[in-house]
Design goal:
The chain is α/β, with parallel strands linked by helices. The protein has 5 helices and 5 strands, in the order βαβαβαβαβα. The relative contact order is 0.19. This is Response regulatory domain-containing protein.
Length: about 120
């Protein structure tokens, strides 16, 4: 089973995205902090990463930058989820190295199609 790393500190948001990913046939590895998420990238080798922008400690943008700097091989797709929806946010997210982003709340019934468009995954 392909693994997805979800870096999300809110239990309800984690439950919702995990539900959608499991329905899509993915296993979930989760982290509550950016630091923990960065550590898990090497050991889990996820198919893709979902990262919340507003995390305790380092934020999701810095998490993305650090993952991008540390990638030894390939490029793991990273998708940001955020409740921020202000002018310029999309550009900042993409500039940090994310491949796309979704605004909260997500729709668990349609999110997988959107994720697959971003990651290029065929399911």
């Amino acid at each position: 089973m392909k693994q997805v790393l979800v870096i999300e500190d809110n239990p309800e948001n984690l439950r919702l995205i995990s539900y959608a990913l499991k329905r899509g046939g993915y296993g979930i590895v989760s982290a509550e902090t950016g630091e923990e998420g960065i550590e898990l990238v090497a050991s889990t080798r996820p198919e893709f990463i979902i990262v919340d922008i507003s995390l305790p400690g380092i934020d999701g943008l810095e998490v993305t930058r650090r993952i991008r700097r540390g990638e030894a091989e390939g490029r793991i797709p990273i998708i940001a989820i955020t409740s921020l929806a202000m002018a310029g946010d999309r550009e900042r997210v993409l500039e940090a190295g994310c491949d796309g982003y979704f605004e909260k709340p997500i729709d668990p019934l349609t999110i997988m199609e959107r994720i697959h468009r971003i990651t290029g995954a065929q399911r």
